[in-house]
Amino acid sequence: MIYLDYQATTPLAPEAREAMLPWLGGPGSAGFANPHSPHRAGRAAAAAIEVARDHVAALLPPGGRVIFTSGATEALNLALRGTGAVRLAVSAIEHAAVLDTARAHDPHLTILPVDREGLVDAEVAIPAGTGLVAVMQVNNEIGTVQPVAAIAARAHAIGALMLCDAVQGAGKIAAPDGADLIALSAHKLYGPKGIGALWVRDGLALDPLILGGGQEGGLRAGTLSPALVAGFGEAARLCTTLWASDAAHVDKLWTSAQAGFAGWHLNGSAIARWRGNLNVRLDGLDAGRLLSECRTVAISAGSACASGSGRPSHVLRALGLSDREAKSALRIGFGRYTGQDELDEAIAAICAAARAQGLSF
Hints:
Blueprint: E1 2-3, H1 14-20, H2 40-57, E2 64-69, H3 72-82, E3 88-91, H4 96-105, E4 110-112, E5 132-134, H5 148-157, E6 161-165, E7 181-185, E8 196-201, H6 226-260, E9 265-266, E10 277-281, H7 287-293, E11 297-298, H8 314-318, H9 323-326, E12 329-333, H10 340-355
Parallel strand pairs: 1-11, 3-4, 3-5, 5-6, 6-7
Antiparallel strand pairs: 2-8, 7-8, 9-10, 10-12
């Protein structure tokens, strides 16, 4: 199986796995200790968590604190609900973790449109009285990179907070400027599943979603997993070390992938995007059939969270595509561990499967 679904999840970095192992210890090892316990083993686990917190913070702007959560979905819920903001404005192509939470919280939610390139206008109109604006850094379906700093400035000008879902960008591109709250997830940057974080600008108060033991500065009750946190921290540290080489590798793969899909339509901007995401469509393609028949390659037709729904992608529809066009799209994702040969082999298999449907390009 050739894995090309990096937007759904990235492979666990071997170094992150090794960092986790000491904290999975059984009897005879102190690695299983509760990090909130006062004894020596508990303090050692707590110290490992703080080291990891520093590594994650290094991916983010100065002047804020990192709160560990179970993942980005919890982090986004904490941000959207915890600020107490009544009126919300979010982009039309946000992840469901933002859109669904925002709709439940604010029945008068403002949806900020995107253009056919999948970009929010840097001068987008934000209604007066809005308390919080949410625009993601990198879209999980089409890879477009939003003008977060400019939108944050507009939000702040009317007294609103700025939330940025940086799940797809963290560890790959520079942290978003101007945000007051930033959510990220370990398993999108070569760390383990089940752990994420919310970065909160200094001086910003939040109400907790989960009450109990007062952990994470009173914002997230519950016993932290030293193993998951350590894996997250090591994955983040690797990203700071491999930032340039990862980007160069992805740029090379992007160039060859674009050539391999000559004749297909690119969804989203070719310029303002993370190049580890290639979302393409072909007129007349039955994407669902191709995914079923092209069994040697792991790709997707959109967000993993919406797979199986049968609904056209809300992201592609926001670009102005018809339902038929949206259902002819494929998302190919690659990154640090993708080899050039396997990418070439996968593209050949995908194109052969498309031609088997009687399509030419």
